[in-house]
Amino acid sequence: MKANPYLLYLKCSDCGREFSARKVHTFCPDCQAALITYYDLPTARRQLDRDALRARPRGMWRWRELLPVEDPANEVTLGEGDTPTLRMPRLGAALGLSQLFLKDESANPTGSFKARGLGAAVSRARELGIEKVIIPTAGNAGGAMAAYAARAGIRAHIFMPKDTPQANIQESRMAGAEVVLIDGLISDAAGMAGVKAREEGWFDLSTFKEPYRLEGKKVMGYEIAEFFNYQLPDVIVYPTGGGTGLVGIWKAIAELAELGWLETNKRPRMVAVQAEGCAPVPRAFQAGREFCDFWTNAHTLASGLRVPKSFADRLILNTLRESGGTALAVSDEAIFAAQSEIAKQEGLFVAPEGAATYAALKELMRQKWVTPTETILLLNTGSGLKYLDALQ
Ligand SMILES: *Cc1c(COP(=O)(O)O)cnc(C)c1O
Ligand SMILES: [Zn+2]
């Protein structure tokens, strides 16, 4: 089997202990903290050429030297990645912004950016010989896992709240996954999935409880840098649930800096957006805390944001502080108004989570936290078509 010469080791995000990248690992047993993948970037810097990667066939795997799968034969792909970054001229004009962009992740397989993380994690799981996987999900992660597991020939088990959007339940079952609907939130689903994983020996693909979903999602950061010709935007606004995308984009930027591929020292201010009915990150950020408190009675129709406490809350808060960013919450009312405005002004039927970024941007403009000539990038993380039951 081929090996990726740049893949070094995993490291606990808390105590710094190293783990072999060539064995199956979940998270650090001592700290209950996420493991982060490291690569030999000084060597990669001498050997890899960013423009050669740009010229490869489209998709997430054209960054394969910076991803954890060793033998390209193990890459399980459905065509994820290389999503469009679009100018938002009318929405920008409405807010008085001259450089407003949106990266549209709805073009991914299964209609959300969860395809990136689960594509990477399922690929690596298959490479390491894992045959059964389990996930607790607020929705899109389950659908993506089911699709990639089907393609990989791996058995998929999914625990989701019973009020998860119908599209997620049906797409998961359609792909042959076993779906268990539970009375409760994703945190309850996570508890049950954890027990099941231990009892049955199924591999748990929960956010940050295995190292490689982060690696798939970080590729958004590479694509963003490349789109802006390696001069990053001033602000990136990200709808935050478990935080994989936010932390992943920030990891990608650090890696690109180490590769010497960035044209300037400017780093984007990272903004985490949540819903008023479930806002543990803004609350902890504003209080200057290192961790989030568990958010009780979490509710929002933006199901991807209904995460009462992320396993990687500290990494999310660190990213916001290191980048000079911020966190804020918007109401479901503002989210649905933004969703309709984006569709009417720009023709995009975005997920409520994606719409939340525009609602938040309005608030940031009001606060003068962003200035009119700054380059702003919103992330639309999924397709509005997956939430028809939320729109009555
Ligand atoms: C899961 C999800 C999110 C939150 O993503 P994280 O990277 O876990 O923070 C946002 N939007 C959509 C559509 C999602 O499915
Ligand atoms: Zn540790």
Descriptive account of the structure:
- By secondary structure, the chain is α/β, with parallel strands linked by helices.
- The chain has a domain at 85-112 and 212-391: Rossmann fold.
- It is built from 13 helices and 13 strands.
- The protein has helices spanning 41-47, 50-54, 89-95, 114-127, 140-152, 166-174, 186-200, 212-227, 244-259, 280-286, 313-322, 332-346, 352-366, and strands at residues 7-12, 18-20, 35-39, 85-87, 99-104, 132-136, 155-161, 178-182, 203-204, 235-239, 269-275, 326-330, 375-380.
- A six-stranded mixed beta sheet has the order 4-5-13-10-11-12, with helices on both faces. It has a four-stranded parallel beta sheet with strand order 8-7-6-9, with helices on both faces. It has a three-stranded antiparallel beta sheet with strand order 2-1-3.
- It is globular.
- Bound molecules: pyridoxal-5'-phosphate and zinc ion.
- Residues 12, 14-15, 17, 28, 30-31, 33 line the site of zinc ion.
